[in-house]
Amino acid sequence: MSPPALRSTAALLARWAVTAHFLLFIVQVGAAVLFVGGRADAYPFHAGNGWAVAALGTVQLVALLVAGRDRLGLLFLLLAFAMPGLEFAQIGLGRAFAVTGHVSLGLLLWGIALALLIKVWRPDWPLSHG
Ligand code: HEM
Description:
It is a single chain. The protein is mostly helical. The chain has a domain at about 5-20 and about 50-120. It has helices at about 5-35, 40-65, 70-95, 100-120. Helix 2 packs antiparallel against helix 3 (about 70-95). The longest helix is centred in the first third of the chain and has 33 residues, at about 5-35. The chain starts with a helix and ends in a 9-residue tail after the last helix. The mean pLDDT is about 90. Protoporphyrin IX containing FE binds next to helix 1, helix 2, helix 3 and helix 4.
């Protein structure tokens, strides 16, 4: 097991990686709402930002694994692994114009991102001990 200081830094980085991913996800949903509402210029932004969201979903997974699987428990570990895979599938659905699947999966992803955010901001998310 790593020393407490090292684990503390890793936990802090994981917390902010998950937070950054969540914020970028909100921006992605906001862009979707804008272009569905008629702002055509929000579409290329949504298309490009989708890759950034999925990349950050991957960074988030790595950061959570470094911070320690034991902190996550099985359910959150599965959710952390599912996130980037489902996000790349989400990009595929978007590019295929599979609207129903794309919006449904978008809502599921939103739930997972929120669950992970709550997990890392809980008071008992250990910053200095494992
Ligand atoms: C609830 C959230 C979301 C909504 C409502 C939404 C909505 C849409 C809509 C209406 C389209 C047009 C094509 C289609 O009808 O399927 C689209 C395209 C797309 N979306 Fe989303 N989206 C959401 C989340 C996401 C997320 C999380 C990602 C990436 C991880 C993403 C990536 C893309 C991409 C790459 C395209 C295709 C752009 C292209 O033409 O190349 N979307 N989205």
